[in-house]
Amino acid sequence: MAREPKEIMIRSKTFVQAKRWNRTRLKIIRYSVIGTVVLMLVSLIITRQIVTLTGLIIPIVVYNMFKGNPEFEGSYRMVMTKIGLDDKSITMTYFKVDKNDGKGARDEIVSFDFNRISSLEYSDQLLCLRISGIPVIKEDYENKIKFKDIKIIENGDRETDHLLYIEEKMKDSLLYNIQAYSGINIIFMDRGSN
């Protein structure tokens, strides 16, 4: 018996790269720190004078201040996400995602046919469902003048993992529906034996 297609709206996370100029600044800082340390070591070898510990520590501290900043390395952002379920597949549409790649906002569409999913694993600690399988991934850009067609990123030819972060209040009903529609048992990673 065929099930009615179901759509569920949640807030989920998606990874967004650091802005390009921030990544460039981090590289400049990294090479400046390396250069400073190398110059200090060369100075130590040539003059045989011990460089002050502060002179070695300050560049490393400056680099680490920038390195840990998500603005420079990228971070996860909460976005509205539509989960579509039918008898054959699950489709996750992440709305208005800007990947900081100069292409602007887009909807990212990740789809798995159930027969191409090898496992479903859920972590209560991370509030995350890992879907392992062969997806089709598309991007539908808001800028229709520059990007007229939906761009296919993955065309379903290789296995990969997709992480679906689920709000605490939505997890029980969403996991139940995914398991019911797919017929695949979800492995609960943090709960011991099922």
Give a structural overview.
The protein is of the alpha+beta class and 194 residues long. It has 2 domains: 6-17 and 75-188, PH-domain like (Roll); 20-73. The chain contains 4 helices and 8 strands, in the order E-H-H-H-E-E-E-E-E-E-H-E. The chain has helices spanning 20-47, 53-67, 70-73, 171-182; strands at residues 6-16, 75-85, 89-98, 105-123, 128-141, 151-155, 160-165, 186-188. The radius of gyration is 23 Å and the shape is elongated. The mean pLDDT is 81.
Distance between the ends: 28 Å
CATH topology heading of the largest domain: PH-domain like
Architecture per CATH nomenclature, i.e. the level-2 architecture of the largest domain: Roll
Q: How would you characterize the largest beta sheet?
A: 8 strands, mixed
Provide the gyration radius in Å: 23 Å
User: Which structural class fits the helix and strand makeup?
Assistant: alpha+beta
- Approximately how much beta-strand content do the residues carry? 35-45%
**Uncertain residue segments:** none
Give the % helix: 25-40%
Run of helices and strands: EHHHEEEEEEHE
Write down the domain tally: 2
Could you give a quick summary of the protein structure above?
With 194 residues, this protein is of the alpha+beta class.
Strand and helix layout:
Blueprint: E1 6-16, H1 20-47, H2 53-67, H3 70-73, E2 75-85, E3 89-98, E4 105-123, E5 128-141, E6 151-155, E7 160-165, H4 171-182, E8 186-188
Parallel strand pairs: 4-8
Antiparallel strand pairs: 1-2, 2-3, 3-4, 4-5, 5-6, 5-7
